[in-house]
Amino acid sequence: VKIFAPNIEQRDVVNHLKGSPTGEKRNVLVESARLARGNIQDLAELKVSEFDAVIFPGGFGVAKNLCSWAVDGKNCTVNEHVNSTLQAFHSAKKPIGLCCISPVLAAKVFPGCEVTVGQDKNVDGRFPDVEIASAIAELGCKHVCKDVNESHVDKANKIVTTCAFMCKAPLHEIFDGIGTMIEEVLKLA
């Protein structure tokens, strides 16, 4: 297992205690290295031949830094190294795991794929971002409704997705969903 991140400037830096931008400038690779305790490499150095699968965690950083979804929605652009990494794993027929908001990367890069970001209706208040499911469909992809503790496998494209924090749920349910995503990625590897 190796961890990678793009060597780019963050769109913005947020004080998560206050929920507001700080005005600071930070680098995605440097900030990712802080979280990974230094054991990380530039995404541009990833060689698909050295790995059995790739997994993209979610988080709002994906929507701000790995692509421009936070600003542009379905009209977003995907970072060139993220795009080429996804394309390389897909071309090599190696599995791709995506959780939380990161399934939008697949929806943008692989028209016609199947992904989940949870539900397409916010019936019980657990899925406040249902418009993302609609945007995925508008991109020509199939959004598959799943609960937080489930994942969806697009067998044709070897893409496994789960909604994670796209659902307001207890951490153990989010953990279970991510666990099923990992299990399914490993089955495809």
TrEMBL record:
Alphabetized InterPro entries for the sequence: Class_I_gatase-like
Coiled coil: none
Cited Gene3D superfamilies: 3.40.50.880
Name the record gives this protein: DJ-1/PfpI domain-containing protein
